[in-house]
């Protein structure tokens, strides 16, 4: 450990003394400026409508975390990349390799309980509400991510179950247009070690890409000591048979090991895309995903087995009468569950139709509906309508309303016997019904100038038949027995604000704020672990002449209730972070990342225990060297 601390200190010294001495070529500076300008025009988003649209043209609220933002961030996990997105709260999880953001929320609804759909390259993955246990957000390292698309509001109209609060699509790096090679080596607090290797090329019409990552940490998922080690391999190949006709194949393998658990996943995803002479487009794709696991934490029932997805889908898009871009699709999804506590196969068939209608020169309307046939719950119909009004060239209004549903999780439905959960046992209820939601949203975006833009949105989610956990008044093996039932109604509502500014050529800033109000209508109490106020501020200084970048961040997390009776409350707190990056040649650069800069206690008090008790750590450091050719 002492040797690694010395390395980090040495890197900091290099930053100080190398800053004024090395500059990047003027060509690199020019490329960077052109890249920044392209981002200002508008990031392309595919998750919102399953067609390519810029952020400016979307009828719903969305955020894109770009490649540049990922490279400038301190994030060691994908969950931490989302911390400055208004409406998403990951403050209750630590940013380190091997952690599980199980209390992360999306517009006040918990991701781990399945209220927000998590995709990787547009496809469902195991973890959180998408299956049982696993990682959800933190399945792959940030170094493997090209960008993240966050679409807000009910999205069952396109994606079916679990998209009640919205969709988070983690898009991995694509096959390159020219040869690339890079490697990264990092060391940090808690004996964190991370190593990565990337190689890709394009030969004629054939392109390929390989990314391999390894990470280690001696910190546990929920605090304390552990022996975490993760290995990740991402492979992609693509072949352009003819103009507009492309064959793709992706292969992803992951393995994660802890002191009390191990997981291994394999996904194979082929796809075919073709564009016809009339401009229409057909997409055929599918994937086979298997996830093996063994969890044996002390005080909990052992869980061992595997789960998997088998999915095929087709999508056809065509422009009609210059006013309507119509997209239709069909999908078949099979989920297999086979482990010591559950043995079940669930099939879902989906059919959706969407019309992107240019109603007026300044008004776009998107109307859609989806029919899902679930082998356990029958049929569900989920409509949605959203609109974009361009009041002027710089002012845009958005509004949407949609219905969504969420199937109960595996643990809630299918466990064959009660599971020990620390100080109690919990048993499934196979008679549960799905949860339903209606989501509303209204927003405005204002481009104050070419360098300043602001957005403001208000939202509300009404959830009916919410599944809650309750004590049934019996004991099992001497401990209280709990189960699940559909009784609760709840709402989450709030205001989201964002401001982006290019202060001068080398300095940019981003400010975000979320006001959240929640209530369990059965009790009249606020939902737990939901701070009413969260805010974030980022300042980025990019000195192209000397190859030096500084990214500074501050986050404010307000107080929150930590028990359902609303008698215990945490304190508010502020978290600071900084990342320093220095280019030492055209191919190599060094970075130093410091998290929890002010050594915050994360709002801990007499009610909230101590940072260590809650699995929270103090100030942490991470040093990296990155080489690219």
Summarize this, please?
The chain is mainly beta.
Describe the structure.
There is one protein chain. The chain is mostly beta strands. It has one domain (2-628): Beta Barrel (Maltoporin, Chain A), CATH 2.40.170.20. It has helices spanning 2-18, 26-41, 67-72, 78-81, 156-159, 410-413, and strands at 44-45, 53-54, 62-65, 88-89, 105-106, 109-110, 117-120, 123-124, 145-152, 166-172, 180-188, 192-203, 206-219, 225-242, 245-258, 261-275, 281-295, 303-320, 324-339, 342-360, 363-374, 378-390, 395-406, 419-421, 424-426, 435-447, 452-476, 479-504, 507-520, 533-543, 548-557, 573-583, 588-595, 620-628. The strands form 4 sheets. It has a 22-stranded antiparallel barrel. A 5-stranded mixed sheet has the order 3-9-10-7-8. The protein has a 3-stranded antiparallel sheet with strand order 4-5-6, with no helix packed on it. The longest helix is centred in the first third of the chain and has 17 residues, at 2-18.
SSE arrangement:
Layout: H1 2-18, H2 26-41, E1 44-45, E2 53-54, E3 62-65, H3 67-72, H4 78-81, E4 88-89, E5 105-106, E6 109-110, E7 117-120, E8 123-124, E9 145-152, H5 156-159, E10 166-172, E11 180-188, E12 192-203, E13 206-219, E14 225-242, E15 245-258, E16 261-275, E17 281-295, E18 303-320, E19 324-339, E20 342-360, E21 363-374, E22 378-390, E23 395-406, H6 410-413, E24 419-421, E25 424-426, E26 435-447, E27 452-476, E28 479-504, E29 507-520, E30 533-543, E31 548-557, E32 573-583, E33 588-595, E34 620-628
Parallel strand pairs: 7-10, 25-28
Antiparallel strand pairs: 1-2, 3-9, 4-5, 5-6, 7-8, 9-10, 11-12, 11-34, 12-13, 13-14, 14-15, 15-16, 16-17, 17-18, 18-19, 19-20, 20-21, 21-22, 22-23, 23-26, 24-25, 26-27, 27-28, 28-29, 29-30, 30-31, 31-32, 32-33, 33-34
């Amino acid at each position: 450990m002492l040797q690694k601390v010395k390395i980090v200190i040495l890197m900091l010294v290099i930053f100080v003394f190398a800053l004024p001495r090395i500059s990047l070529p003027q060509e690199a500076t020019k490329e960077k400026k052109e890249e920044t300008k392209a981002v200002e025009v508008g990031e392309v988003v595919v998750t919102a409508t399953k067609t390519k649209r810029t952020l400016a043209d979307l009828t719903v609220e969305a955020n894109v975390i770009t490649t540049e933002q990922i490279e400038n961030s301190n994030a060691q996990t994908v969950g931490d990349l989302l911390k400055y997105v208004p409406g998403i709260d990951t403050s209750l999880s630590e940013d380190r390799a091997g952690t599980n953001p199980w209390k992360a929320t999306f517009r006040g609804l918990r991701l781990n309980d399945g209220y927000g759909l998590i995709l990787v390259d547009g496809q469902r993955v195991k973890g959180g509400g998408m299956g049982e246990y696993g990682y959800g957000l933190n399945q792959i390292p940030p170094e493997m991510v090209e960008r993240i698309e966050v679409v807000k509001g009910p999205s069952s109209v396109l994606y079916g179950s679990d998209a009640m609060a919205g969709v988070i699509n983690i898009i991995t790096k694509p096959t390159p247009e020219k040869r690339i090679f890079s490697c990264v080596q990092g060391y940090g607090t808690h004996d964190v070690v991370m190593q990565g290797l990337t190689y890709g090329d394009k030969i004629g019409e054939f392109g390929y890409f390989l990314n391999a990552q390894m990470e280690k940490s001696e910190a546990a998922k929920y605090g304390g000591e552990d022996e975490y080690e993760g290995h990740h391999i991402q492979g992609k190949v693509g072949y352009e048979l003819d103009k507009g006709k492309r064959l793709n194949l992706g292969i992803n393998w992951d393995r994660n090991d802890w002191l009390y658990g191990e997981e291994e996943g394999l996904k194979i995803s082929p796809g075919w895309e073709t564009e016809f002479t009339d401009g229409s487009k057909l997409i055929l794709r599918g994937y086979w995903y298997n996830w093996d696991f063994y969890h044996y934490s002390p005080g909990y029932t052992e869980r061992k087995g595997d789960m998997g997805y088998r999915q095929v889908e087709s999508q056809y898009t065509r422009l009609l009468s210059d006013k309507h871009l119509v997209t239709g699709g069909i999908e078949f999804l099979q989920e297999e569950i086979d482990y010591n506590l559950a043995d079940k196969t669930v099939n879902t068939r989906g059919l959706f139709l969407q019309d992107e209608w240019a109603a007026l020169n300044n008004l776009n309307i998107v109307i859609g509906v989806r029919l899902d046939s679930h082998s356990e719950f029958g049929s569900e119909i989920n409509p949605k309508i959203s609109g974009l009004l361009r009041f002027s060239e710089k002012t845009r209004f958005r509004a949407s309303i949609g219905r969504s549903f969420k199937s109960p999780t595996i643990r809630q439905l299918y466990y064959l016997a009660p599971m020990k959960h620390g100080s109690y046992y919990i048993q499934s209820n196979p008679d549960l019904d799905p949860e339903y939601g209606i989501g509303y949203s209204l927003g405005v975006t204002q481009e104050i100038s070419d360098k300043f833009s602001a957005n403001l949105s208000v939202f509300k989610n009404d959830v009916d038949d919410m599944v809650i956990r309750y004590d049934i008044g019996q004991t099992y093996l001497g401990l209280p027995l709990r189960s699940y039932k559909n009784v609760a109604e709840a709402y989450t509502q709030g205001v989201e604000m964002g401001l982006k500014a290019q202060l001068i050529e080398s300095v940019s800033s981003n400010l975000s704020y979320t006001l959240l109000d929640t209530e369990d209508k059965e009790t009249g109490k606020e939902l737990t672990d939901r701070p009413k106020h969260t805010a974030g501020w980022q300042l980025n200084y990019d000195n192209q002449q000397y190859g030096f970048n500084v990214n500074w961040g501050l986050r404010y997390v307000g107080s929150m209730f930590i028990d359902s009776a609303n008698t215990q409350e945490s304190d508010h707190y502020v978290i600071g972070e900084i990342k320093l990056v220095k280019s030492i040649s055209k191919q190599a650069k060094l970075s130093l990342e410091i998290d929890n800069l002010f050594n915050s206690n994360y709002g801990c008090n007499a009610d909230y225990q101590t940072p260590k008790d809650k699995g929270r750590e103090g100030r942490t450091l991470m040093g990296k060297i990155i080489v690219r050719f």
